[in-house]
Write a structure and sequence with these properties.
Elements: H1 2-18, H2 49-59, E1 62-67, E2 70-76, H3 78-87, H4 89-92, H5 100-104, H6 117-130, H7 140-158, E3 162-163, H8 165-182, H9 191-194, H10 197-208, H11 210-217, H12 229-250, H13 261-272, H14 281-312, H15 314-328, H16 343-356, E4 365-366, E5 371-373, E6 376-378, E7 383-387, H17 388-392, H18 435-452, E8 453-456, E9 481-485
Parallel strand pairs: 2-7
Antiparallel strand pairs: 1-2, 3-9, 4-7, 5-6, 8-9
Helix pairs in contact: 7-8, 7-18, 8-14, 10-11, 10-12, 12-14, 14-15, 14-16, 14-18
Bound molecules: protoporphyrin IX containing FE and 2-acetamido-2-deoxy-beta-D-glucopyranose.
Residues 49, 52-53, 56, 74, 76, 361, 387, 389-390, 393 line the site of 2-acetamido-2-deoxy-beta-D-glucopyranose.
């Protein structure tokens, strides 16, 4: 018995010593993987950021890694990222189908769909619907401005003292996406605004943490009752919550008179009929869930970064205010068109997005056929990790790559200019679906609030800490900001 056990041990050791994962020919360089586990042991699975930094420094703008048996390629810098996502988009726009996040999405929604006809139809549908006036009478701009008025009202109440902007921005971003999807909003502090947050946070933590990595690395453990099972339960709970909202919405719906995104989608289901159509109600549930998730956390993290920098760079804030006052003069409110007359404010928003680096590694892509990149061969099914962060601070692409400076987006004449390396929404056919909405939100909220209020770093708050918290999105550490009215109400 003991002899047998020792034999097994020796065998396992031999496997690890001599059998290597066969790297594909001419594959990008990277640390040597071991069978089954890939490079799991070379990474700190709780916070791998430092390890990645080391690898990027050692191997340059394209290197490979093994996540279990799955090869992955990390792209660093604009040249590599652009060549893959834009120039060779047809080969690099898939999504991996064998990870925890893809399994919990059940091949529904849009974010984790492969580069296939269902994805294409749903992407086209959203881009059409989310366009201004795509959803009945109320434009996207009106929806955002309406929510911004509620923000102003609340800030007026807390003016004078310092406040914690975190929940407020989260609620506002959540409301805007609810207005788009369902035409409803909730008062700040309403329990319904918070119902999804703990679930989103928990599932992001699992997917992004050690258990997610273990699930992705070791297919053999996937059926065991380990903590990653909770991810599937969370998605089930959230889908039930969305189903309830959709069903309530249906009771007041008039077919072909859409009030919002969900109505448009239900009309589309009717229009296409049942046969083989990819537009179904269960697809809608996952879609709504993903738009809600993708549209809330990202936008509120960016807003938090914007106000962190505006409170700590009062001169930048003041210059924005001068420009805003001049352009808006007696107008009742800002409009998105005004951005063309506000180069400095535009530059500040873009610089905050660059520094915020909200989605540092984008979402993972996957090659849909054997292809080549930067002289290396990349087989079909390779995980592609575009390092957006590296592009947003790449030397040679920016005047001031490592400091906060709106001049990164201004030319000699003081006009707004967007460098090619500005890709916080990624690039190519998979680029963020909500870019238009997000940019409109950032502009209208910032301009409206700066016109009305002055924001400052509270005296007793100590030194500001600009290091972000690592998660699926990067977000500033919690902070408080002071708010003062600028002009009498
Ligand atoms: C400042 C805010 C935002 C940032 C920085 C951001 C960033 C990103 C990034 C980096 C991706 C990955 C693109 C890729 O795979 O190459 C993405 C995808 C996506 N985003 Fe956003 N996003 C933001 C706001 C939004 C909003 C408001 C919505 C909702 C309307 C949204 C919906 C989506 C969707 C659905 C995808 C997946 C697209 C696909 O797979 O085809 N995002 N976003
Ligand atoms: C991405 O690039 C940034 C900045 O160059 C670096 O700090 C980080 O470690 C890189 N991440 C990966 C996964 O290579």
């Amino acid at each position: 018995m003991l002899g047998f056990f020792i034999l097994v041990c020796i065998f396992v050791c031999l496997v690890f010593l001599f059998i290597r994962i066969q790297r594909p020919k001419n594959f990008p360089p990277g640390p040597r993987p071991v069978p089954i586990f890939g490079n799991l042991f070379q990474l700190n699975i709780v916070n791998p950021l430092k390890d990645f930094e080391r690898l990027a420094q050692r191997y340059g703008n394209i290197y490979s890694l093994y996540i279990g048996g799955t090869p992955a390629v990390v792209l660093t810098g604009l040249k590599a990222v652009k060549e893959a996502l834009v120039i060779k988009a047809a080969d690099f726009s898939g999504r991996p189908q064998n990870l925890l996040v893809s399994h919990t999405a059940e091949r529904k929604g849009i974010v984790f769909l492969d580069y296939d006809p269902v994805w294409r139809e749903h992407r086209r549908f959203s881009l059409m619907t989310l366009r201004n006036f795509g959803m009945g009478k109320q434009s996207m701009e009106d929806r955002i401005l309406g929510e911004t008025e509620h923000l102003v009202a609340l800030l007026e109440k807390s003016a004078g003292g310092p406040m914690d902007p975190q929940t407020l921005f989260h609620d506002a971003a959540s409301n805007i996406i609810y207005l788009v999807l369902f035409g409803v909003r909730y008062d700040y502090g309403d329990e319904r605004l918070k119902q999804f947050i703990p679930l989103f946070t928990e599932s992001a933590k699992i997917a992004n943490g050690p258990w997610g990595m273990i699930y992705d690395t070791l297919p053999v453990v996937r059926n065991l009752p380990l903590p990653f099972k909770r991810s599937f339960t969370i998605v089930r709970i959230m889908k039930q919550m969305v189903a309830k909202m959709v069903n309530e919405h249906k009771t007041t719906r008039v077919p072909e008179e859409p009030r919002d995104f969900v109505d448009c989608y239900l009309d589309e289901i009717d229009k296409r009929g049942d046969d083989d159509s990819s537009f179904t109600e269960s697809q809608l549930l996952m879609y709504v869930l993903e738009l809600h998730f993708a549209g809330t956390e990202t936008t509120s993290s960016t807003l938090l970064t914007v106000f962190l920098y505006l409170t700590t760079y009062p001169d930048v804030q003041e210059r924005c205010q001068q420009e805003i006052d001049e352009v808006l003069e007696g107008n009742a409110h800002a409009s998105f068109e005004d951005r063309h007359k506000m180069p400095y404010t535009q530059a500040v928003i873009h610089e905050c997005q660059r520094i915020a680096n909200t989605v540092p590694l984008s979402l993972f892509h996957c090659t849909s056929r054997d292809t080549e990149l930067m002289g290396y061969s990349i087989p079909k099914g390779t995980l592609i990790i575009p390092n957006l962060s590296s592009v947003l601070s790449e030397e040679g692409q920016w005047k001031f790559p490592h400091e906060f400076n709106p001049a990164n987006f201004l030319n000699e004449q003081g006009r707004f200019e967007k460098p090619e390396a500005f890709i916080p929404f990624s690039a190519g056919p998979r680029m963020c679906l909500g870019e238009g909405l997000a940019r409109m939100e950032l502009f209208l909220i910032l301009v409206t609030l700066l016109r009305r209020f002055q924001f400052f770093w509270p005296e007793d708050a100590g030194e500001p800490d600009f290091t972000p918290v690592y998660g699926i999105t990067l977000t500033p550490k919690p902070y408080r900001m002071g708010v003062r009215l600028r002009q009498p109400a």
